[in-house]
Amino acid sequence: MVSWLGYGNSAQISIELDDEETRTKVPVFTDEDSKESHCLFYDGESVIGKVDIKLKQEGKKLEHQGIRIEFLGLIEIYYDRGNHYEFVKLDKDLARPGILSESCSFPFEFLKVVKQYETYSGRNVRLRYFLKVTISRRLVDIIHEKSIAVHQLSSYPETNSPLKMEVGIEDCLHIEFEYNRSKYHLNDVIVGKIYFILVRIKIKHMELSIIKRETTGSGPNTYNENEQISRFEIMDGAPVRGESIPIRLFLSAYDLSPTMKDVNKKFSVRYYLNLVLVDEEDRRYFKQQEVTLWRKSPTSLKPENRGVAALENMRT
Q: Which of 33, 180, 266, 315 is the most buried (most CB within 10 A)?
């Protein structure tokens, strides 16, 4: 009915980035099960391209109240779908109110755009950046969006001391475990050892897992969602006093984001190494330790992009 009255989508909009063919693409979750390939940008890079508007019926005019393009950074919390939180909003007018009588293109540029957070898609929250073109009309606007991905790069942490912890039950069990560092880049290898100092209970097996904890909200409205990223058995059978078990965990095998703390005061993402011991009566003893994950600058990154990428030291 709307289309019959002349208010439907009588034009098709597309957005093309200047270096879209050569720019690195990365997969981004659009929902729990599906991924899309998006062009990758870094903090401080310009976003330049053109908007193509194709009239669906050549010769038929399109009256509009203006055409504009926006660059948006948005946080969407799934249980609060009525509220979207904008942390970046830039806009440019492409055309004043008038009439389009033929298909046309409009160049655009957003120079040295601040992109202070990394793209993220989790169980309860999504952070995304996208371009949005709007052809304003009297009744129904014509809108088209194009998403991009953003990675936040970090330099090597200034301090990165080993992690040492103990698990114990008085007069029954005393275990020490040590990891080589407390901060790891996303393609790093976690190396560690577990020492059995006192063993007076019958341990059946031991496993190590990576837990991602996504925290949304604040105060009494804080909600934590734990997701087990990986789990593998590092020992099968009863250990003896003085025995040590080596650990090597390759992070590149998993789909991980950097650690994110208090992003725009809306959400955080933290990672934990979870060590679990199970005895012959299926009782479980565990110890969690937080580790910090950060994104290392890829060797393939162009020198001119390294100059504008945000290379901030990870706070200890």
A: 266
